[in-house]
Amino acid sequence: MGFKIDEEACGAQADCRADQRAALEGTPGFRSPACEEEDFSHVRRVAVIGAGVAGLQVANLLHQVGIRCVIFERSAEVGGVWRENYADFGLQVPRQLYQFPGFPWPADGKWELFPTGAQVQEYIRRYAKEFDIYECCKLETAVLQVSPKQGASARGWSVKYQTEGLAPAVEEFDFLVMATGMYSSHPHMPVAPGIEVFKGQILHSCTFTDRQVAAGKRVVVVGGGKSAVDNAVAAAKEGKSAVLLCREAHWPVPRYLANLVPFKWGTYSRFGHSTLPMHHAEPACSRWLHWLLTPLKWLWWRIVELLFWCQFRLPREQLPKSRIEVDLFSGGQILTYEFRDMCRRGQIKYALGAISRFHEDGVVLKDGSKLEADMVLYGTGYAKTYDIFDKSSVQPMLDLERDGLWLYRNMIPARLRDLAFIGCEVSTFN
Q1: Global pTM value
Q2: Which DSSP letter does residue 227 get?
């Protein structure tokens, strides 16, 4: 088996990229490929968009080296996704794995090992107060548009923003940091036809902030990720019935391996990472070692699958088709046994499939089966948007693909100067 490279097609693509590069040459903000080393000595003032964990850390570190920052945050408080979220949300890892460098969880606080969302928010607020980050925050301020400063040799960005109750304003900065997080854009809701005849309620997980709204209702939760599982558990505690509907099952990860060893020693250890599929940029010696140990790696992950299958007592319909070493870092979720136990008691039903259409009292799946529902709750994540960048001049230089941006070290766009994306394009489990 093999494949043949279509040299003509590759040549055509290369010519297209060359033509595009030539057209962009001299455009404000464009980084020339001939530039081997960039000078950032001009940076004195930085705009940071987003006051979540990433934006706050960026501002703190820049302040430590004497660079002034302005953080634009559209809400009235720092914290980002932790400020407000779906009912009963919280941290899925031990708090020691989720803390700011140089600022451990304060000893005077009563923190759970796996803190609730409110506890994480309080910790973030304490960090912002400790390092005087509130002083550089423009809260309740929406960024309307960002664009490179005009002029072929100009460096930096212009930020157009509007604070609540005030007229729009524009400020210029030497550098721009996008720290808007993974979950700050528009909710992704793949709503099927027929919603106009549905008599019930349709929500996204971001608006399901009080589980009491599910009281006495038949709830269908759509999605297979962590938020969908949490939503199903919350809805089942108050509702008449709850069904978790997803297209494919994902491997659940227990908090303690074999109910003894904290999962972090397996998931977040050099040993655990060494058994993952090999990275494409590994040197020859490392590639040879991975190839040599392939049978042992395969055996190790089959043992892990067996362990997790036993711990969660997974029925056939909940057994994932994907290998765990692949699924773990794309759809995996760290769960307690609450969802497992509620499924076994019949409080939550689990169904594989997708909604074909709505009807008056529920939904019809693509296989023709029906689910009765008074509420359909989408735990289906968020859709990324880059609308604050000009569609005609800036977005073409972002190298936007279907699954996100092409970025150097997941931060720096190759063709735009004085711009970085921090904590908003990649995370451990996406």
Answers
A1: 0.87
A2: H
